[in-house]
């Protein structure tokens, strides 16, 4: 009879563990749903450069600033300043768009955000 009591206790523990796992799964789903509805800043980086303040002060209309990327290199698509993809500029009607050519794997994107 003692064996049966132990088995019932084990079964109760397993049921409790299953309920906890189900609650965690449901909570994760809710958290994921909430996360998916958060707005983030998306930007396309053409290139970067460093300038001295005196050079910035001397900029005027028509000035040309050389950037780090070469012509034809893919541009970086950033979410909150973290690269999530690379692509090239395309026209979408009368607006600019970006055609993605390389996307960071989803697991890395989430980890880096």
Descriptive keywords:
3 helices; Surface presentation of antigens (SPOA); 2 domains; cytoskeletal motor activity; 113 residues; 4 strands; membrane; 26% strand; alpha+beta; single chain; four-stranded antiparallel beta sheet
Structural description of this entry:
- The chain is of the alpha+beta class and 113 residues long.
- It has two domains: 1-38; 40-113, Surface presentation of antigens (SPOA), CATH 2.30.330.10.
- Helix content is 42%, strand content 26%.
- The protein contains three helices and four strands, in the order αβαβββα.
- The chain has a four-stranded antiparallel beta sheet with strand order 1-2-3-4.
- A hairpin with a 2-residue loop joins strand 3 (82-92) and strand 4.
Short description:
The protein is an alpha+beta fold. It contains 3 helices and 4 strands; from the N terminus they run αβαβββα.
């Amino acid at each position: 009879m003692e064996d049966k009591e132990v088995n019932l206790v084990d079964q109760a523990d397993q049921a409790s563990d299953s309920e906890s796992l189900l609650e965690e799964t449901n909570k994760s789903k809710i958290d994921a749903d909430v996360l998916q509805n958060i707005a983030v800043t998306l930007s396309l980086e053409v290139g970067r450069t460093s300038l001295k303040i005196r050079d910035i002060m001397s900029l005027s209309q028509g000035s040309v600033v050389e950037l780090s990327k070469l012509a034809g290199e893919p541009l970086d698509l950033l979410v909150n300043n973290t690269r999530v993809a690379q692509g090239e500029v395309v026209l979408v009607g009368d607006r600019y768009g970006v055609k993605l050519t390389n996307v960071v794997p989803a697991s890395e994107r989430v980890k880096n955000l």
